[in-house]
Specification:
296 residues, four-stranded mixed β-sheet, D-amino Acid Aminotransferase, Chain A, domain 2, Aminotransferase-like, globular, alpha+beta, D-amino Acid Aminotransferase, Chain A, domain 1
Amino acid sequence: MGRWAFMKSDIGANRRTMTDCKFLFSNGVITSSPDVPPVATLLQSHPGAYTTTRTHSDGACILFWERHLRRLSNSARILLSRDPRLLFKPEKSELSLPPSLVESSAWDSAVESLVKDSVDQVLPIALREGLRKEGEELAITALVSGNVEKLRGMESASGSDSPAEMLDVYVHLAGYVALAFDRPEGAARLAVVGRGRSVAEAKYSDWVRLRKPLERLRPTSVTELLLSNDGDHLLEGCLTNFFVVRRREGKGVGENPYEVQTAPISDGVLPGIIRQLVLEYVFPLYIHFDLDTYIS
């Protein structure tokens, strides 16, 4: 098959250096260090869809923010329609969702507005407080969680079925130092450990809990765990999308000598932000793109 290499990004829930600078915005209340839990604790404590990005240029902008907002609202919609328990996590009774809520055309704009407004409130404060060390950015995790009590209130009241009325939004900020991939410690070391995620098209907080048994299997030298349903077709990492960059064999004259491989969405992988950016970058360069990651 020729030589191949792993390609990933430091954006999202990848391994990175986190510092003690932390803020949490929830239901209009801002909490700062040391009372803010680690982001993994927050995600394991609340159901829902989430996304993680970071600031850039000393907090001047948020990387791919509009893409993250769209992916977050889409993940929440997928959970609502396919497995509401991953969004609400009710303890006892079955959920009764108003049909108009699931099919609401206002869903995306409502969710994106909720998250954007929350980030706009806490980010300036986090930047102004000056708790970051020199060279740090801020990792931003936004979690949209269904509130069962609010949902029941909507069921008993007549009127609007706005998504905003049954969702809680949590925004977690933490100081961030990106790993440098031009250093030996920045290289990826991989191991295949488990089957693909359920409802893989959505990014949801319960996966943080579900992947813990897999993390216990991770050798100390391995930086990312890969998922596969058969041991041959590689789907994605526990934390990242997965790409293979390899030199092609038997290419035609004038053809690009490299190709990029990744699993198709239909195989059960997250439509990640970096995945889409790689696709957009590769096509104009006439690099062959293969929607498969079969490694023998």
